[in-house]
Every structure is written in C-alpha cells, then in structure tokens.
C-alpha cells in the first residue's frame, strides 16, 4: 500500500481502495453549533446501526472540514484518545456545548452595556474557551487527527486566509500546530472574542508566527475548501488514485451541515439601514450584528448554490447533501446567546431539521426550497449506508491486495 491519503493513526483506508472520496463539512456559527451536533449524532447512530456500537464519524470520511464552531466540532470528532479512538462521540458534543457555552458567553449585561463594552474591546475574554479546549485536546497536534482535517482561519497580519490542513504538514511542517491553538483561532470571531496568536517551528528550527481570527472571515462554509484540499493533493502527489478519475466530481460524496440562518423577510431594510452608522451596522435591537449576518450568510449560501448547481448539472444530486435551517427565529440567531432557553430551542431546531425535506438555497429569493420528497433524516440514512458500503469495499480490496502480495512473495520464494 502506498498512499499519502493514509494517515498513520487513521482507521480510514485511502480512496484508492474504494469508489468514492468522502467529505464532511461543518459551518461556523458560535452557539448555533448545537444544530450540527444534533445532525451528527443522528448520522453516527445510523453508522452504529450498520457497523456496530463502536462506529465513529471519523472512521468514514477522507476529510472533515470545519470553520469556527465547526472547527471545534471537527477537532472533537477527530482528536484521538489514549486508545487511538475519537476523543468525543458525536452524542457528547451537545453536552460539551451545554456545559461550556454559558461560561464562554456569559449573559451578564443588556444591549447598551454590551455596546459600551464592545467599544472598549471584545465582548468576551475567551479564557474559558481557551482553558476548556486546552484541557480536552492537551498537546494533540494537527498531524495526530484520526482522519484528514481542514480548518480555516484568517491571519490579520498578512490579511490572508490560513488553512490548517492535514495535507500541508508534510511539506510545511510549521503548519503542524497544536489542535487547541487552531480551534481557539478559528473561533475568534472579531468583536466577540480576542484574536489568537501563537508560534510554531519547522524542521529547520525556523520560527513562524500566526496572528489569527475566525475562519468565517474567509470561509464560513468550508465545503469547497475540503474538496479543494483533496483535489490539490491528488494533483501534486502520487496517491494510488488515477488522476483523471480521482478528480471527477462523481467520485465525491459530500455532507455539508449548516448552523442555521434567519431569513425572515424584512429583517433589515434600506429605510432602516440608511440611518445606520458604525454602531448600527454592528448592533441591532435584537442583539444581532447586521454586518456579521451579511458577510457570513452571503458567503455560506454562495458555496451551497455553486455545489447544488454543479452536482445537479452532472446528475449526481444524490452525492451532495446540504442540511441547513434557514428559518431560525431572530432570538436564536445571535452567535453568543448561551441561555438555557436559547440552547434548548437550538436543540429543538436541530431535531425539527431532521424532519424537514431536503432543500437547497435559491439565490433569487434567498430561501431554502425543497427539491426532494425525502426528509433530511431519510437522506442521512441513505448516506450512512453509502459510507458503510464504501468502508467495507475499501477493507475488502485492501485485504485482497495484502493476500495478493503474500502470494506473490510466496511464488517468488
């Protein structure tokens, strides 16, 4: 077996032994990460039904990408424990959020006080976020994850996106940073949490400095980043996958999970926005930030629109699944509203989302419109079956290759 797609600690055999390239992507969204937590728990339960109680999401995907809160979830799903199994099962993510988010985003002040505090600096000091992540991940590095990952951040010193990708660390060893530093950085939403800086060293001892903020500045929906990282890797390297076939879109099996949006008509209007100054663009009466909503939701929907159109054109819609809630109430949409009531409502929103029809964004209206009769839950069951079949196929072909090599060695001797 020869493949850079095979990671030393991974249970995921490389795509060379199967038929698909499997991708999982998780959007950014702060406290709204509870929504993908519910979706991922359902998916992992389906995989357990197929392959046993020890099945974990990290066993099935060639790459998992996450931005901001999605980056944190990515790390939780892929960081190894002492037995070289995922540190968190998907069902544990919800409890982590419920326990820690009220301490990360303490709800101590009203809107006026928040505005005054925000003029002075970030709304939150980020200490509990940093401490809780470091406690869980300890010294785990990017290269230790149980499958390939891609976590976007944005460097405010170079004004360039910085993508921490498993595929980069072999040639750019300074990118093999601590997973805790990467998670803190990708979650550092401007004005909400302080930027995160750290230093790493390459194999020659040269120091590299990072000055990072939230990956949502560059890519709140990292699905294309995940697919691009694999494509670049396959183009540059010999990975045991024939180049033309490996880069065909029909080989991709993609699940992209959003953190919810509020697309209620009339939320912002020209008549209101024309009166806004700096504070108006950053704060609205319901506690949301119009500027943050505009930048993150716009880029997020563009990625979904592009991939939906592409997979439909190639008649492979059944290999791309976008699960997103676009009808969140305005009270649920803030990134930092970590009250018990709000978290309970977000969990309910995730559960309702499973029962909704599979939908895609219509850029003309901005709304999500159903395009399949089946629900997201049914679609996830179908994807779980495809993931399970792909894993079984790879294991069978891998074993056949081992047996063939043994036979060849025996014949030579």
How would you explain this protein's 3D organization?
The protein has 413 residues and is of the alpha/beta class. It contains 14 helices and ten strands. Strands 1, 2, 3, 4, 5, 6, 7 and 8 form an eight-stranded mixed β-sheet that branches. It has a two-stranded antiparallel ribbon with strand order 9-10. A hairpin with a 4-residue loop joins strand 3 and strand 4. The relative contact order is 0.16. The N terminus is likely disordered. GO terms for molecular function: monoacylglycerol lipase activity; phospholipase activity. This is Patatin. It is an enzyme of class 3 (hydrolase).
Write a concise synopsis of the structure shown:
The protein is α/β, with parallel strands linked by helices and 413 residues long. It has helices at 34-51, 69-78, 90-104, 111-120, 127-137, 179-186, 216-219, 223-236, 243-246, 270-273, 278-282, 290-313, 340-355, 376-412, and strands at residues 21-26, 63-66, 148-155, 160-165, 196-201, 207-213, 252-257, 320-323, 357-362, 367-375. Helix 1 packs across helix 14 and helix 2 runs antiparallel to helix 6 (179-186).
């Amino acid at each position: 077996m020869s493949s850079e797609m095979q990671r030393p600690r991974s249970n995921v055999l490389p795509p060379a032994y199967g038929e698909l390239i499997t991708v999982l992507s998780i959007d950014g969204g702060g406290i709204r990460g509870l929504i993908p937590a519910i979706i991922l728990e359902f998916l992992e339960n389906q995989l357990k039904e197929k392959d046993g109680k020890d099945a974990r999401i990290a066993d099935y995907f060639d790459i998992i990408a996450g931005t901001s809160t999605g980056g944190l979830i990515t790390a939780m799903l892929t960081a190894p424990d002492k037995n070289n199994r995922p540190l968190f099962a998907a069902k544990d993510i919800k409890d982590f959020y419920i326990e820690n988010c009220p301490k990360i985003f303490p709800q101590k002040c009203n809107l006026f006080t928040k505005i005054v505090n925000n003029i002075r600096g970030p709304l939150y000091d980020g200490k509990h976020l940093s401490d809780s992540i470091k406690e869980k991940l300890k010294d785990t590095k990017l290269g230790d994850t149980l499958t390939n990952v891609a976590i976007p951040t944005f460097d405010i010193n170079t004004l360039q996106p910085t993508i921490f990708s498993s595929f980069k660390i072999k040639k750019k060893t300074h990118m093999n940073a601590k997973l805790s530093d990467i998670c803190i950085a990708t979650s550092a939403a401007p004005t909400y949490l302080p930027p995160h800086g750290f230093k790493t060293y390459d194999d020659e001892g040269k120091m590299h400095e990072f000055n990072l903020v939230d990956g949502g500045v560059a890519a709140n929906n990292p699905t294309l980043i995940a697919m691009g990282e694999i494509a670049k890797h396959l183009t540059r390297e010999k990975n045991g996958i024939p180049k033309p076939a490996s880069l065909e879109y029909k080989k991709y099996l993609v699940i992209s999970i959003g953190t919810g949006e509020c697309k209620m008509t009339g939320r912002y209007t020209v008549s209101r926005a024309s009166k806004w100054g700096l504070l108006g663009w950053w704060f609205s009466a319901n506690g949301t930030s119009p500027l943050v909503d505009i930048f993150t939701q716009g880029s997020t929907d563009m990625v979904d629109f592009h991939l939906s159109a592409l997979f439909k054109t190639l008649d492979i819609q059944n290999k791309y699944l976008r699960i997103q809630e676009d009808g969140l109430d305005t009270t649920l949409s803030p990134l930092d509203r970590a009250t018990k009531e709000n978290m309970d409502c977000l969990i309910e929103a995730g559960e309702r989302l499973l029962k909704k029809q599979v939908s895609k964004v219509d850029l003309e209206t901005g709304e999500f419109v159903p395009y399949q009769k089946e629900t997201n839950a049914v679609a996830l069951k179908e994807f779980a079956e495809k993931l399970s079949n792909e894993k079984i196929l790879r294991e069978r072909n891998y074993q056949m290759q081992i047996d063939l090599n043994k036979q060849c060695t025996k014949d030579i001797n």
